[in-house]
Design goal:
single chain, about 80 residues, mainly beta, N-terminal domain of TfIIb, MSMB protein, secreted, disulfide bond
Amino acid sequence: GCMLNGKLYPLGHIERTEDCYRCTCSHTHMNCCSIFSTPVAYDKEKCKIVFNEKSCDYDVVQKNDPSKECFDVSRV
């Protein structure tokens, strides 16, 4: 298996780790990629980003009302 952040994962494909990565574990190494996209262009005056651990993605929400989503967001 492979160790990542103190947790042992089995050999093969790992669909989602606890910290939101998709990995492949082999006998010699482990390759991982994030499964979340990072917001880069949004209204920084009115909005803020919050990491949503359940969905493994960033929510872009209104600063004055975090229950409301911001739109016109570009991600990478």
